[in-house]
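My current task is to audit a protein record that another person submitted. My question to you is simply how this chain folds and whether the tokens agree. This is what I was given:
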Amino acid sequence: MREALFIKKNKDRWLKNQHLPPDDPDEMAASFTQLVDDLAYAKTFYPSGKVTHYINSQASRIYLDIYKNRKEDSNRIWKFWKYDLPLTIRKHHGILLFATLFFILFFVIGFFTASVDESVAAEVLGPGYIEETHKNIEKGNPFGIYEGGNSILTWLGIMVNNMIVALRMFASGLALGIPSLYGLAETGVMVGVFDQIFAAKGLAADFWLVVFVHGTLEITAIILAGGAGLILGKGFLFPGTIKRMDAFKQSAKDGTKIMIGLLPVFAVAAFFEGFITRLYNDLSWLTTGVFSVSVIFVIWYFIIYPIRLHKRLSVQLNEEDV
């Protein structure tokens, strides 16, 4: 194998070992074993190459970590948000993009189906919900449905419900990802139908500026949860060049990381729905600001930052270490 191909094949794993060393002793031992194998191969075929020196330094570091007492890393949580979660998301950007496009497809289907047949809205969202929404529109308070109820109870109730839905979508990935796709399709249709109700009354822009005060984070998290379910299913269906069970374990680990990262997103989204969205009449500048910041956060943290972080670490590996 050519040295460049050897580096390309193993680069991501080396990067992860360097910047996100495992804390679990078994994982650390497994990483050390893999590095020793890599080192033996590199010494055989590239004895004077920089890659050999690089792998040797990594193996030495892990060896010392295994056989000496280490202090607890106080920055473990910070490292999870700064490196681990973004790199995991970058690793699966393709699947997460597919989940997003799949959701959008059924959003469009729901929207146009409801515009052709008015009875669809009642079937999807329930006649009582539709009737109350139409009454609020006639009163000049189209999103009044968000103003009722106790804010704290609304926050907690929605947060728990959305977390349960998301965890179910992820876990259902065990069934080859099919239930996860169904969950994405169902949610996409519901949002599309809901949007059409307001668009038909000339409130299309208002829908996005009000409902997506909380919906930006909530829908993003639902899509990513569905994507995590697809990652779980893909690990079993398409193991690639490694053993099926090993691929499944890795996909389960990656999906779990994504779900852990989504829990606070669901909590914040539910907080916005319980406390902020209802202020759209009195403090429209606040709700518009929250909507704008949420959009910027989603685009930055889940798209731009993972790409830039992965590229930066790759360049660092190529230029400094290999």
